Amino acid sequence: MISYTLAFIGFLPGMLILSEPVWTIFPGSEGGIEVLMGLGFILLSLILLKLTKNRGFLWLVTGVYVFALLYFTLLTRHPMSESVTLLTPFATIRNAISWGDSGIIIKSWINFYALIANILLFMPAGYLLPKLFSRTRHWYITIPVGLFISAFIEVTQLLTKLGCFDVDDLIANTLGAALGYLIYRTLLK
Fold first, then answer.
1. Dihedrals φ, ψ of 99, to 5°?
2. Angle between helix 167-183 and 109-132 (nearest 10)
3. Distance between CA atoms of 149 and 132, rounded to whole angstroms?
4. Which of 27, 81, 117, 124 is 20 to 30 A off residue 133, Cα-Cα?
5. pLDDT digits (tens, 9 = 90+) for 28-86
């Protein structure tokens, strides 16, 4: 248990060392590194939450998650010259994937990894919120709270020009919160 805790706590200084988004440190990864980091965080936090009932540790996991959320959505970004809004639902998603005779076709790996990263980014919100707050133990509260947090980040990106407001990010983030809530119901409740 101690080794898991130390590995998890080591995640935070590792994030602090990175002054640029991971995709600029590993050129050519096209976002794959973020997806692997997201999966690693989710798996490690789920293992640790399953092994311990310590409420303080739950808050530590949540603190690391909030930092990672802010890191990837705001802290490592540079302001753009103008505000950008993408308001057509599923446009960005259609640029990432399409359906063919043999199933899903990946049209753009960069957009695909961004889609997966947006889903993974909000999965911890879906299982941490109900673990922390008894009022969010119902899907009809947790999922809208995930949508609200995502909308807050998207509006902040728009106003600060640290990113664009993309309705597809809202969709992917909300889907991530819903999947996280499903994890809470099946594994952590």
1. -105, 135
2. 50
3. 16
4. 117
5. 445 566 777 788 888 888 888 888 888 888 899 999 899 989 988 888 888 999 988 99
